[in-house]
Amino acid sequence: MSFIRKDMRALAIGTTALVALAASGAQAKVEGDTIVLGSAISLTGKYSTNGIHAQRGYDFAAKRINDTGGVKVGGKSYKIKIVYYDDESTPARGAQLAERLIKQDGVKFMLGPYSSGLTKAVAPVTEKYKIPMVEAEGASRSLFTQGYKYLFAVLSTSEQYLASSIALAAEIAKKNGKKPSDVRVAMAFENDPFSLDVRAGVADDMKKYGMKAVVDDKLPRDLSDMTATMTKIKALKPDLFVLSGHSKGAATAARQMKEMKIKVPMVALTHCESSKIIDKFGASTEGILCPTQWSETLSYEGPLFGKASDYDRDFKAAYAGYKNVPYQTAQASAAVQVWKDAFERANSFDGEKLRMALTKTKMSTFYGNIKFSSAGNNIAKPMVLRQIQGGKLKVVAPLKWASAKIVWPRKPQY
Predict the structure, then answer these.
(1) Which of 47, 73, 208, 398 is most buried when burial is the number of CB atoms within 10 A of its CB?
(2) Rounded to whole angstroms, how far apart are CA atoms 26 and 53?
(3) In which element (H, E) is residue 359 found?
């Protein structure tokens, strides 16, 4: 709660300054030696946990850039400032605030909101006004089928999140003398763009192996009670349980699996880190598989933050209380780094020149390689899958990145 209060105070201060700026008639494009980026982001509402993680990632990168010489354009050094509005985890509010940032506050360079749903609401606004937006938290593949020219995403798309768990289940079945088609899967997904895309990726991979779903549920809107789904799972005893419901959904699933003593050999949940299920539910989370966009153990490296492990260390020093740095935070920092790179390569603040520079992005960073397709999604970085082992998250797939062998079946301590 103290983190949230701190961030809300910062938001209030930033908003006051922004209102004063708008009243003065100034344009928040470039103010003297400062480049202003804008973001409508979830600081309250059901996505607030991840919204705050993302905000901290943005702020951490801006501070690092400012402390290491800033952004070089036209032979001059500029600092980065980020203006936020709280979208309250509501798409309509996000779109309204994006328009406010652009039309009233003069922001010409945007950072994305949190979640695919909010990004879907904001993208038509930035596209309408031809404002480039580098986003880090909207992974839905449907974002990149709309023909947007001003949307650029640093993260891997959502259909990849849990698909690797299907391949793992098939591999384990073969090792145990069974057919992959014998694997019985329970699925539960939030009814939002991101989670439904995750489900689509899972369903496509299940078809490849001939797997059947014994449970295929949509989670309740408030994500606070999954008893109906958990009761089915306990009765039907699937081999694999996959779930996507952002941070709140992951926390509810972990809590109710513990309360109902549900033992499934393999469980895969999105948003393990940001929901802090290890801290909240301890040894009952042993063996849960957690897809991630980034891990501090990967061999990624870049000029601004150094290695992935360096970023992890430095961020924890700046923000006390993080046992694991969520990938939502890391990718938010990467988005700000992409803006710095684009400004410097374009050597301009012109929107069209910046858009063209973004289309030609090719970077190696602490977060991974970044290269945008013609649709705007990052095609240079894979997802990885981690497993909770001894209270720590260890990469188990793909094998190229693995730091540990998968433990199967999982042995939760209830």
Answers:
(1) 47
(2) 30
(3) helix 351-359
DSSP assignment of 24-52 equals HT--SSEETTEEEEEEEE-SSSTTHHHHH
Model pLDDT for residues 43-52, shown as the tens digit of each residue: 999 999 999 9
Which pTM value belongs to this model? 0.85
End-to-end Cα spacing for the chain = 28
How far lies 406's CA from each of 114, 372, 391, 396, in Å? 31, 32, 14, 6
Query: Does the fold of domain 160-292+384-401 match that of domain 2-158+296-371?
Result: yes
Q: Give the length of the chain.
A: 414
Phi/psi class of residue 325: alpha, beta or left (left: φ > 0; alpha: ψ in -120 to 50)? beta
Residue type, 283: A
Distance CA 49, CA 41 (A): 11
Q: Are 265 and 44 in contact (CB under 8 A)?
A: no
Q: How far apart are CA 33 and CA 49, in angstroms?
A: 32
Fold of 2-158+296-371: Rossmann fold (3.40.50)
Q: What is the helix, strand, coil percentage profile of the chain, to 5?
A: 45, 20, 35
What tokens does 207 get? 């078809």
- The model's pLDDT over 243-273, given as tens digits with 9 standing for 90+, comes to 999 999 999 999 999 999 999 999 999 999 8
